[in-house]
Amino acid sequence: MSKPRILVTRKIFPEVIARLSQHFDVEANQDDVLWSDAELIERLRDKDGALTTGTQAINAALLAACAKLRIVSNMTVGYNNFDVAAMTAAGVLGTNTPDVLTETTADFGFALLMATARRVTESEHYLRAGKWTRWSYDMFAGAEVHGSTLGILGMGRIGQGIAKRGAHGFGMKVIYHNRSRLTPELEAECKASYVSRDELLAEADHLVLVLPYTPESHHAIGSAEIARMKPTATLINIARGGIVDDAALAEALMDRRIAGAGLDVFEGEPKVQPGLLQVPNVVLTPHIASATVKTRLKMAHLAADNLIAYLEGREPITPVNPAVARNDPGSAARS
Ligand code: 8YV
């Protein structure tokens, strides 16, 4: 029997490609060419599965053109590149990579918070530019981290990781807002109190965004929300571009309506809102929150595990639309 055929859409660890090759006939984009939608469809037409990285849109048009496709395995926890309803309707399973990146991403959220509050990159640019000629009492004086109020919008696994770091490591008061409230046990573990969205905006000294990107969360933070924040507050986005109105944020930072922002994700990335590049009080990183070698390898292996399990007739490990796997339509139900 011939092996199932899969496409790996971006360059990933060679050892994971080697592992996949033991199970599948693999076409891998190890030259890391950025394909257009049409080029992606052309390569995916004859494939049973795909390993994607979150930058390829899996939508109704692609699904209609790729009738053999049974699974798309994202090497990410966020899957806003999936049209889940269209995938479910087409009988295509989607999988993601939760858990393996939680602590690493929470570490980075905290790194960005601290860099922003303590003005790390702004002061480094000053030093590199040769402007540091003497000590001054208020030079790059920033905001306190320990003992301050940490606000978290979106209290999933990564949000909880950030809460624990703040509460247990830095003695912060932790408040959060989420679609659903945590259990009392989890709230106690995170030492976090549930508040309304308005209270969160008004009370946080440092507001970290860790919610998924959906039509409802588009521009969840715009000029009206920023206006409710303390002028001394910092805003950290490690969730997704589009949750923050970047143009409104750039203006607010320019006018010092909040003290600073730390951004790992951007609307329309890798393009960055030009205004953000002009303001000094923002720390900018290129979507690297999960980027440690160890974690990226775990993510790639979990994405491979999902493909191997499902295409070999077993339960997927981390499905996002498990009904597809339960109904197990396979190619028969789609033909
Ligand atoms: C990925 C991420 O590196 O997992 C996620 O949701 O945002 C990152 O870990 C990124 O999505 C790759 O496209």
UniProtKB/TrEMBL annotation:
- Mind telling me which PROSITE patterns this protein's record contains? D_2_HYDROXYACID_DH_1
Residue ranges of domain D-isomer specific 2-hydroxyacid dehydrogenase NAD-binding in the record? 110-289
Answer whether the UniProt record assigns the keyword Oxidoreductase to this protein.
Answer: yes
Tell me which UniProt keywords the record has, alphabetically: NAD, Oxidoreductase
Q: Which GO terms describe its cellular component?
A: cytosol
Q: Which residues form the D-isomer specific 2-hydroxyacid dehydrogenase catalytic domain?
A: 6-321
Coiled coil spans:
none
Q: Name one GO molecular function term.
A: hydroxypyruvate reductase [NAD(P)H] activity
Homology family:
Belongs to the D-isomer specific 2-hydroxyacid dehydrogenase family.
> This chain belongs to which protein, by name?
D-glycerate dehydrogenase
